[in-house]
Amino acid sequence: MFKEKPSIVKFFQILTFLISLTTGIICFVGGLFLLYAGGVPYYFIVGIIYIISSILVIKKNIIGSYVIAVAFIYTIVWSISEVGFDFWMSIPRLLIPAVITIFGFLSAPLLEKPLSIQWLPVSRVINWSGAGITTLFFTVMLGLMFVPHGVVRPTLNEPFSLATADNTPSTWEAYGHTNSGDRFTNFDQINRTNVKNLKVAWIYHTKYRDSNPGERKQSDVNQNTPLQIGDTLYTCSPNHQIDAIDADTGQMRWQASGNKEAPWWHRCRGLGYYRNATASVGQICRDQIIDANSNDRLRAFDAGNGQLCPEFGHAGEVDLLEGMGVSAPGYYMPTSAPMVARGLIIVGGWIADNLHSDEPSGVIRAYDAKTGSLVWAWDLGNPQLTTAPPEGKTYTRATPNMWSTPSYDDKLGLIYVPLGNQTPDYYGVNRLKASERYSSSVVALDIKTGREKWKFQTVHHDIWDYDLPSQPELVDLSDESGKTVPALLQATKRGELFLLNRATGVPIAPVEERPVPTKGNIAEESLSPTQPFSSGMPRIGGEQFTEAKMWGVTMFDQLACRISFRRHRYDGPMTPIGLDPAIDQPGNAGGLNWGSMTIDSHNGYAYMNDMRLSSEFWLVPRGNWQKVDSRLPTDVDTHGPSPMIGTPYGVVTLPWMSPLMIPCNHPPYGTITAVNLKTRKVVWSVPAGTAEKMGPLGIPSHLPMPVGAPAYAGTSGTAGGLIFFSGFQDYYVRAYDAQTGTTLWQHPLPVGSSATPMTYISPKTGKEYLVVNAGGAGHSPEIGDSIIAFTLP
User: Fold this and answer.
1) Residue 594 predicted with pLDDT over 50
2) Buried b (16+ CB within 10 A) or exposed e, 321-334
3) Residue 113: its pLDDT value, please?
4) Is the model's pTM score more than 0.90?
5) What does the pLDDT look like over 732-763, one tens digit per residue?
6) Please, are residues 293 and 259 in contact by the beta-carbon 8 Å criterion?
7) Pairing of strands 407-409, 414-418
8) Is 465 a catalytic residue?
9) Nearest in space to 166 (alpha carbons), one of 186, 185, 184
10) The one catalytic residue among 182, 243, 296, 465
């Protein structure tokens, strides 16, 4: 035997001792907690094994190395038994044990006691072979972290053909391109063959912060998708500053100042456009840009010069707080684009989440686009009230609201309204009967009168904040006999896709009422024993959790998430909120959210992006509220602690994270997905971006691992066979093959984007442009003001 060993071997011996001992103690203690909570015994057992091995290693007993190898083999067998060969699920289970095993084999030359001299050659072969094999395994696993996993690709017989192209210049005149919300243009100058050649044509900076100095916050993220009317783009900033931009040069044509900032949300997702068909060419306000701003004003601007329209309302403005009663600043405000249809401006509004039980009404109103006069109002709590309330009265307070974007079918004369809940979201005791009928429903209203034609409810007695966030998508499909059926596709935060006949509200794809958990809620709450599930359509995300599905970057934070899972109450989908912390899966951000979907009506495809994040939530008795509120953070997207004044409780809802601030659920955390509405199956699905700008404790990893991230805003498509998306966390805009989901092009952005890309063809040059609003990504502190146009050289 060697009398002296190289210092490098001693280094590996000490390192192996420290790592195996530390890992053993953490796994033993954590495993004991997990066992006590009803979890698996693996961590407890492997903790004992590593502690024993560390003692043997420090005593220079080679059996310590072999005990470490046995622990690794045991871990591999356990991992396969729990999650099979799922890559991302295997990573936290296998990587650290693999590293410990490598160190164990490399330190083995110092650990030859009690081997006799004849066994030394055999031992060394085993040690070096073991180190080599385990190192190869570790290296392969690391390399595979940069390869997409969980990808769905189309089958060979999946029908697809390019839509008929028409490169005649047209307009993008509504938030969703058209009032049907298709987000699809028939242009093909930019196509699957040449998209790789896209170059930046111009960049416009709104500089809206120059007039609103101060600390930038996540609520400053710009979510606007510009309108394109003729040779001009119209965009608005979070403070509702409106910029008119030359579509070919990116030069400013005019700018209208913004408003005083709201207390928390700063949002302008879109603008409206109206043309007065009776006005003569050159007449003031013949073409109008409509803005519903966060200072509760509906404004109409002359599209040519940016001046307020003098005949609209009072000097170009309408007060949206009329008839709403008392409203503290920020308690009511529009956050989404107003819709213009048949000369009417349809307006809803966001109601402050969970602050008070007595908040403004969720009334939907229609205003004359020429004069700003109120034409009709739909107050679901008082449907007999069809216009403004009488003097001294208000619209019904705190009713379900429409904070997202409606759709419109001119042939049927129907507006489709996605509704939220009666505030507060998490306490349903004493809600109005009307609110119970309409919460989380899509409702069809007559465009002329505002009266209801039909409704469809997606959640009964919603205490999960599962309001409808997405614009209803209108598409025509064929039934079994070949007859055209007018369809409506409604996406939800739950990941459920409801496919309805938009003329009647009757489901086209089967919907089932399934039993859901009803235990764990507060005694005074009365829950629905069943909830609607769209059994005839694929569900996007929203998988049911088990302990085995908990994740972490390492085995340690995965162990912490397993313990957290066992300590939280979770009984499957629709687990109700109660006094003890429970898991809300999906969380209140979705699922699918306000970005909505893209519809390729030629192929019957719907393209969408989703977020796969969970929340933890619980109610806090009023007597304990101040103490709890003072120690918890407020989160822009998931709300954090909210007082729910007027109820016996406050509420806490937070992202469910590991100690390293990584979601406890496994990747992907967001996807881009295509669904065939004819076959009602997923055609393809790919992770939404990489982890370049994400990492443990919020520190960017700078590693392009395609884990998929929460994907904000929406997709858009073209007849060139392309799907564009920019709402990634890694600051890219990408083009996907609409048929297969293959990434064909990507371009870095100065900051992230939380807006839907749009395309147009210039009436001056005939060139097709792709425009992206790089105003900041969700969950990122980096905020920008860039409107970026791309075109072919």
Assistant:
1) yes
2) bebbbebeebbbbb
3) 54
4) yes
5) 999 999 999 999 999 999 999 999 999 999 99
6) yes
7) antiparallel
8) yes
9) 186
10) 465
